[in-house]
Amino acid sequence: MTASFPALRLRRTRTSAWSRALHRETRISPADLIWPIFVTDGQGVEDPVASLPGVSRWSVDGIAARAKEAVSLGIPCLALFPNTQPERRSEDGREALNPDNLMCRAIRAIRDAVGCDVGVLTDVALDPYTSHGQDGLIDPAGYVLNDATVEVLVGQSLNQVAAGADIIAPSDMMDGRIGVIRAALEAGGHGNVQIMAYAAKYASAFYGPFRDAVGSGGLLKGDKKTYQMDPANGEEALREVALDLAEGADSVMVKPGLPYLDIVRRVKDRFEVPVFAYQVSGEYAMIEAAVAAGAGDRDALVLETLTAFKRAGCSGVLTYHAAHAARLLGG
Ligand code: PBG
Predict the structure, then answer these.
(1) Ligand 1 pocket: which of 171, 286, 287 to mutate (most atoms within 8 A of CB)
(2) Which tens digits make up the pLDDT trace of 231-243?
């Protein structure tokens, strides 16, 4: 039951800043953010990513410094992505299993720098390690093999956990991988390691700058449409989420972010579990391009988009703007 105009004037509560603050339904804080960062080889290296202005690949010492920055900004979690040295990429991506690969060295450096004051989320998929840029093992026709890939992903996950990863985040979209990884974690005595499933990951045109950043873009022939989802599908996303939850995921992710807020809301309403969204590289690049073109204010665009994720039902957001947003939010 509501009044009608003029007894009801919805502008009444909007007349002053204090009143708008009092009536605000959604709030964001640095604690809502996961900061994706790129690791590169060497010492003292900061290597800017041309297609992601303001984002760099850091050598392991720089990753430790980013971890300290995250702690001081109140960002609870880092997501790591390696730019594997070209000579370490192979048809089968076996570098993913190397206990001294860039990811594992970065995880250990974070632990040394900040202990357990920040969570470490690690991506599970083979694309930063394969010479063909696909997320899994391929057959002679180039088709990405499901079950054989899952076996390698289990080894990759255990390798990351041995180095100290807190959250395993499979981004590969193979069928059945969450259950197998969960069973391996349990069997290995890692019952408290979380799994954040990239459950609804779309075959998107918004990943281009990320592929530059990890060096897989130039290698990739074709696309990832035989495993990543068709952007036209919503019901199928709910089936993906249902399966990953049943197999033992602690939280689920929708990716990309803004173009898929309807999926976030449907997942949240249907399953009532922690949902995260990844505001991906192409989304970051669009905001930065708008700012560079004088078409928008960075701070306002960043905060408005992050608020939209929370309003849609997200527990948190992976965003390359994390450090900037945390500073804006007073972290
Ligand atoms: C790899 C992976 C991708 C992203 C995260 N993990 C790219 C892809 O699937 O090709 C994209 C992130 C971004 O664009 O910011 N499995």
Answers:
(1) 171
(2) 999 999 999 999 9
